Amino acid sequence: GYAALSSGSGSRVFTFEASLFSKLDCSGTAIATGRIRLSGHADDDDNGDEDCLEFAVPSAAERTWSPKDPHLYGLRYRLLAAKSQVIDTVWSYVGLREVCRRGDQLWLNGSPLYLRMVLDQGWYPDGLWTAPTKEALLKDIQSAQRLGFNGARLHQKVFEPWYFFYADQCGFLVMAEYPDWPGDKTRRFSLPLRYKQLVQREWRDIVDRFHNHPSIIAWTTLNECGPSKGWKARGGPGGGFQAYRTEEERQQIVRGYKSFVKSLVAVVRASDRQHRPVHDVSGYNHVPAAEPDLWSFHNYEQKPDRFKLQLQDPPKHHIDGRQGQPLFVAEYGGVGMEAGGPIGCNPPKFHAGYRGGFSSTQGCLALARIRDLTTAIYSTQTLSGFCYTQLYDIEYEKNGLLRYDRTAKPGLSASALRRIFDGNHQQGRWSGVGITKVASRQKRKGLAAQLRRVARRNLRGAQILPSSGHLVAGSLLGPPPPAKRRRRT
To answer: N or C: which end of the chain has fewer CB within 10 A?
Structure first.
């Protein structure tokens, strides 16, 4: 790219400069700057090993990114010619944070992390999988935080880049996923080769595009793979796996499935320069040989007492092969409630969620069930968090905490839901872990105004390498309006 700048002018040498600022808008004096000399010809190899620029954040200016303090540093990239002539400038941001697994816990910046997540499927009444505005993405994040959640599992969809931009700013934890559901009654008993190749290729693209965002703390490669009751099941969709084809064919399918999941996890790990935890399969059939960093199961039991017993002693097919990974209830709840509101492309009436849906006059009963199911999780010390299904109603699923248009349901007030999901009822070793205060209305308005100013720059992809110490994450922004930038320089 830069070689074209020297066309017709002989050999030239350029300098790539990166400057780090303590403030997101890059105002004030840079706290760290680094430079690399670049040859003006693409076939020159004068750079040697200088293809990676690293600089340290001064200890006095170090602030890690977290839900409590989602601090982001401003980054300025400049391409310089002779006598420091500025040829091009690009603005970016970066966060310092480290996420990893230690034993049966996730850790963020050296402290244990308890996941209080909500399922967000990214549906909208007027655009289906397309948000009407980028501000709608911000509102969904703020709605989840107002209800007490510290993150979301982004379900069966690669979300818009603006979502991750806002999640970075808001300190909202994200478990990123992929739309991998091929359908049919056999529930992925057997997958065609072309499908497997497509999934692996697209996962490389996903990680390459989004790996810089500090808000993304884990990748979930697949959802509900294989038979819901395990490979030895004789009942369920398709008659159960043991009723599917011959024994020899079944063994071949199991070997192929395990090989595919293992290779897919390896692809994601190799693509992610930050080495985030990888969640191989959300629910159903994990693959121990893939060495997943998270282990999960889905349970939509609606009776709190039975649900608690199942959490304390999970069915064997849920935990078979687990080797001490953090155990996470990746889907539960789904408390259905028919409360009117937009229904998108649905018929006038359809099943309100899962078993035992409530009417619009039974909000207090729905709230009690949500509370009791969640309390059962809090009281189970072996669990490292949960993901409630789901934030709002979607196509053919009226089991959201909000209506499809994001308005409140009768009996499910934001304050009442927050008392359930804010973590103040976490028990034992999880008591007080990862609890943050809800932002005031005035603070949320101030953040929205700040984001509108920053978002005037065009959001694009970036390639920011991890530094020593804390891992670096960020996203590249296009240049701001020239007049405004000139005043700051």
So the answer is: N
